[in-house]
Amino acid sequence: MYTKKNIIIGILALSVQGAFAQFKTNIALDKNVTTGKLKNGLTYYILHNEEPKDRASFYFVQNVGAILEDDNQNGLAHFLEHMAFNGTEHFKGKGIIKMLEKNGVSFGKDINAYTAQDETVYNISSVPIANQKLIDSTLWVLHDWSGSLSLTDAEIDAERGVIREEWRTRRTSGFRLKMQTDPVLYKGSKYSKRDVIGDLNIINNFKYAELRNYYKKWYRPDLQAVIIVGDIDVKVMEQKVKAIFSGIALAKKAAARTYAQIPKHDELYFGTASDKEASSTSITLQYVLDEPLLKDSTVTRKNVMNSFYTSILNNRFRELILKNQGSALNLKTYFEPVSRLSTSFNISALAKKGKTIQAFEEAYTEAERLKRFGAAQAELDRTKKIFISSYDDFLSNKDKVDNDSWADKLTNYFLKAKPFLSADDDYKLIVGIIKSISLEELNTYAKTIQKPINQVVLVTGSDQDKNDFPNKEAVVNVMKKVESMPLEPYTKKENNAPLIEKELKPAAIKKTFEVAGIKDAKGYILENDAKIIVLPTTYSQDQIVFSAFSKGGKSLVKTEDLASAEIATTLARSSGLGNFDNMGLKEKLTGKVAQASPFIGENTQGFQGSSNKADFETMLQLLYLSFEVPRFDPNIFSILKEQYKNNLENIKQDNANTFKDTIELANSNYNPRTFIFNEKFLETIDLKKAESIYRDRIKNAGDFTFIFVGNIPDSAIELIQKYIGNIKSNPALKENYVDHNIEPKKGKTEVHFTRPMEVAKTTVYLNLTGTIQYSKENALSMYIIGEILSKRFLQTIREEEGGSYGVNVGGNLEIIPKPTFSLALTFDCNPDKEEKLMQIVWKELNDLKSNPVNANDLEDIKKALLKNREESLKTNSFWINTLYNNSLSQIPFLQEEEYKNLISKINQKTIQQFSKHVLDSSSSVEVIMSPENQSGK
Predict the structure, then answer these.
(1) Digit-coded pLDDT (tens) for 418-444
(2) CB–CB of 532/524 below 8 Å?
(3) Is the dihedral of CA 189, 195, 199, 205 positive or negative?
(4) Which residues pair with 224 in a beta bridge?
(5) Which residues lie closer than 8 Å to 916 by C-beta, 6 or more apart?
(6) Counting beta carbons within 10 angstroms of the beta carbon of residue 545, is it exposed (0 to 12), middle (13 to 18) or buried (19 or more)?
(7) Which of 406, 448, 795, 891 is most buried (CB neighbours < 10 A)?
(8) Are strands 594-600 and 705-710 parallel, antiparallel or unpaired?
(9) Single pTM value for the model
(10) What string of H, E and C letters represents the secondary structure of 743-757?
(11) Which of 802, 909, 763, 787 has its CA nearest to residue 844?
(12) Phi, psi for residue 285 in degrees, rounded to 5
């Protein structure tokens, strides 16, 4: 389940069951969308889109979810979502997944679903459209989901264990806090009793008929939509939809689809929640608001003003935090949906230790200042510039909006009547609204957002801090105090200096070079020895991506200075550049689509960045300043240290963090260079050392390679010569990384430990690692082993045993600092099943070397690799990564036929031989964290 931050519309009419809602918009649907409603009530939307080429996405949307469950069905909407993959009329057992994976469409990556309180959405994405039989089969899957699930007794019972383990996995600190606050936010509403995953006693014991009853009652065509977006013939697809879905019958006496309401209240509701693993204390004031009756241009205008309002207030919050004189670590304001019929405006403060009420007062004061005096003209102008720039960028790259993004928007059109426009019409509507909003209109509207009704205040934090939580009276008193206190209007000084004051002249190109295997890429060596690679592409109409690297990284930093190295680039990125501090730089870049962020990794240092064509020069200016005039603000350092300190005081209770640290230490054989976030880190970090490390690592353009890929402007080379060519360099200094042999001890490492837990859960980590010669075939074979094990564990541990919600497996081959393989897996489970599941894990691992892998599984994985490669070749991100790896590690680029030949050579025999080498030559690290109280649920 995931939350989508979209505004929802409802027309309310009270009834005994709840509210009936008729969601409407008078903004016409994009004419490129073919839509219709069959006689049985099923709605369909079909849209031609060519991102990616030769692919289509199929969505099946149900306007039903957990909120429609009876009390004895709590959790069955989500249970039913799982059952949709466990047998249907035309696809027995696991037939849906098997059919799709045979065609390279992968479960998890391309095949997925989610259940929420008010909807259930299934998707089959990235389906190759050339195979008409596959297209027809995919449509039949959607057909069967509508009303032809098998729901056999055996499959239902098998799935109970999977749901139990999902329930266990999802009981995180955040979830437990939400379970405490929902009864306050949703007081008097059914939402307070529906967390989607449901009541474990019901999951374990419900009668088969209850699930079938829910399915029969709510999975029906008048509440369903088929959404198809892709590189398809729309008319042909429409005929297929009509032929396949028209035969689904609609029950004569269909139950009314009602919508639960959140009762109105004049009194401020107040609630607190604590959890021993909570890492921070926050206080949030929510104003619960009704959604409009009709989603028209007036509502769209209000949504734009809501975005303006929160953008301006968040900017003021950021300035306040950067002064580092208050009680808050972070302040933010935002709108979010809280139910199908309601949204909320939120003001939230993350507090310093013991300063919750003071942090709330700071947040509420700034909100009151904006409400009372409004925004300044400069703030509105800056906000307009940011929003218009964002829409300009969207319009320039409209052809790169992918199928799933459009399908997601059509899902919201069906469920919530959120307008669906073409990119051009959307731009025209929104930018027209943006340009027409006056300061007077915005400031008048700002006074209407906070109303003294339907208010909820929620305070959450750790058990050890709950004695410092404010009470309701204290919060109300602060609100009254702020509302009556004298305040001054917001003022701000502008920094109008140029980004770079120094006059720069383009440096000469010493020589050019070709990039082996990539004929369109051009290489240049500048006068300062900087190495430049440029690859022009047209995959995106207005996108340039950029990477830079040189060797060394933290491997060249002394052990005692590593803590300061960890914060060096964070400190620099947060401090501003040149003549501009953090806020000044942000304002200077208003409306610009450009970024260049430094990093210092384990063995390399460099930059990641991007821009559009118009702001390519700005990206280069940021790069130049990051080398030549970085800033290290003592105030920013103090803020970072305060945040670290605040987190550190609670993180000791965080089981996930303890587990992660234990893994890091075991994988490094307790090497002193292993990074652990603890008191020693806090004591060791030093502003001057961080600055010194940054200046030592981010220097010398002559030792860097700079790579640019995308829709590069004609002036690119001259601009690169001007900015990169003027970065100081020492061509004689060529650095390399140092191998500190950070690896597990030889043989077997076992670390088993217990922790106090709210919900009994064992978490397992296993890593097999060793050295191996790097080759493309070995790298692919390593990946394939991980995928094979994923399939096997899905079958054995998840489906047959009901032992875990899922086993995450990854096979990887690193080349730096030395060629090393890693086969790592992790999963959560019932403590009572840990021993048996580990026996299955080791059996599956040993079977890899003693028996040939399943031929069908291997073929499915190979098809998925070819399909993913075909899709990736048309993206800038693929080419920037390819050039990066080629330049850094001399990994050659394989042409299409070479790649296909390589894949074809991998077979059952080669995988078995490779697996034997991996398993026989590896050292293992096994970390198992179990509850102090061993009784599982």
Answers:
(1) 999 999 999 999 999 999 999 999 999
(2) yes
(3) positive
(4) 62
(5) 848, 849
(6) buried
(7) 406
(8) unpaired
(9) 0.94
(10) CCCCCEEEEEEEECC
(11) 787
(12) -100, 125
Length of the chain: 937
CA atoms within 13 A on the CB side of 788: 28
- Taking 70 as the threshold, does the pLDDT of residue 194 lie above it? yes
Q: What is the pLDDT of residues 555-580, one digit of tens each?
A: 999 999 999 999 999 999 999 999 99
Q: Which two tokens stand for residue 548?
A: 């830079």
**Do 145 and 86 meet the contact criterion of CB atoms below 8 Å apart?**
no
The whole-angstrom separation of Cα 9 and Cα 690 is 51
Give the residue among 542, 524, 544, 541 at the shortest CA–CA distance from 533: 524
CA 797, CA 800: separation in Å to the nearest integer?
6
Provide the token pair at 269.
Answer: 């509701």
Separation CA 802–CA 830 (nearest Å): 10
Contacts 24+ apart (CB under 8 A), 581-590: 581/322, 581/631, 581/633, 582/322, 582/633, 582/636, 583/315, 583/318, 583/319, 583/322, 584/495, 586/318, 587/382, 587/494, 587/495, 588/495, 588/499, 589/618, 590/382, 590/385, 590/386, 590/389
Give per-residue pLDDT as tens, 14-44. Answer: 222 335 557 899 999 999 999 999 999 999 9
What pLDDT is recorded for position 21? 54
CB atoms within 10 A of CB 718: 11
Strands 604-611 and 594-600 turn out to be antiparallel
- Residues whose CB falls within 8 Å of the CB of residue 757, separated by 6 or more in sequence, listed in order: 655, 931, 932, 933
Q: What is the 3-state secondary structure (H, E, C) of 665-688?
A: HHHCCCCCCCCCCCHHHHHHCCHH
Task: Note the helical H segments in 832-875.
Answer: 834-850, 855-872
Residue 733 sits at φ, ψ, to 5 deg, of -95, 105
Instruction: Locate 854 and state its tokens.
Output: 């399943």
d(Cα 657, Cα 223) in Å, to the nearest integer?
A: 43
Q: In this structure, are residues 526 and 721 in contact, taking their beta carbons and an 8 Å threshold? A: yes
| Lookup result for tokens 């305040």 | 487
The pair of three-digit structure tokens given for residue 571, joined into one six-digit string? 């400190």
Structural element, H or E, at residue 388: helix 377-396
Contact assessment for residue 619 and residue 596, using Cβ atoms and an 8 Å cutoff: yes
The answer to whether the CB of 760 falls within 8 A of the CB of 575 is no
SS3 (DSSP) at 423: helix
Kindly report the backbone phi and psi dihedral angles of residue 13, in degrees, each rounded to the nearest multiple of 5, phi listed first: -140, 120
Cis peptide bond upstream of 263, omega within 30? no
Q: Are 822 and 742 in contact (CB under 8 A)?
A: no
Nearest to 215 by CA among 112, 18, 79, 339: 79
CB-based contact 338:369 (threshold 8 Å)? no
Contacts of 574 (CB under 8 A, 6+ apart): 582, 633, 636, 639, 640
Sign of the Cα torsion 225, 229, 232, 235 reads positive
Residues 332, 313: Cα–Cα separation, whole Å: 8
Q: Cα separation of 297 and 535, whole Å?
A: 43
Calculate the dihedral angle through the C-alpha atoms of 852, 854, 857, 861, rounding to the nearest 10 degrees. 10
- Strands, E assignment, 241-364: 269-275, 281-290, 328-337, 342-351
**CA–CA separation, 796 and 790 (whole Å):** 10
Computed on alpha carbons and rounded to an integer, the radius of gyration of the chain in Å comes to 29
SS3 70: coil
What local confidence, expressed as pLDDT, does residue 934 receive?
62
**Residue 724, token pair as written in the block:** 């990169």
What would the two tokens of residue 268 be?
């401020």
Could you count the other beta carbons within 10 Å of the beta carbon of residue 252?
Answer: 5
For residues 333 and 135, give the distance between their C-alpha atoms in angstroms, rounded to a whole number.
45
Virtual torsion, Cα 599, 601, 606, 611, nearest 10 deg:
-50
pLDDT digits (tens, 9 = 90+) for 218-245: 999 999 999 999 999 999 999 999 999 9
